[in-house]
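Lecture notes, unit on protein representations.

Consider one protein chain, 204 amino acids long.
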Amino acid sequence: MGLAALTMRSTGWGAGIFDFDNDGNKDLFTANSDILDNAMELARRPFALPNRVFRNKGGLTFEDLSSTAGASFQVPAPHRGAAFGDLNNDGKIDAVVTMLNGPPEIWMNRSAGRNHWIILKLVGVKSNRDGLGTRVKITTGLGMQHNLASTAVSYNSSSDKRVHFGLGSATVVDSIELIWPSGIKQVLKDIKADQVLTVTESAS
């Protein structure tokens, strides 16, 4: 995928694999810093490092967009955990990054483009209340995508429990298939894009 060459000079702590531009391909965000606070003295490596974001171009290739992703990507710092979620409900995944001995950084995702999206807010009945562990598969005219309801996606952090999908040019999700932790399988059909949809676990 080319990520080894792009990341070999960075040490990633928090990391998230999300579709930041809603094109249907999951991208990569890393919160970076060396392990040793005296790395410069011991190994001639910088301790503080900038965050990085890599766009999935499709076809298993990535490009580094960090230089154009905002001011916080230009400033080295002792980053650690990273939590992800749509903080302002605009359909784009944002990030909150913690640092040693400093306030967290908030990255509001202002990526350009008019790609569509859907976010699922799960409500368990027989399963746990937040639906954590639910496996989700969606199908659109552009193909299938899979995700898992989880808050544990990065180092020492808790992310948004809602499940996000970028839909590209698709304005309708043909089907949403959910397999809840209880084993109950639930299928929704013909769901409009660009909404936060609450899904309550069915009885059977």
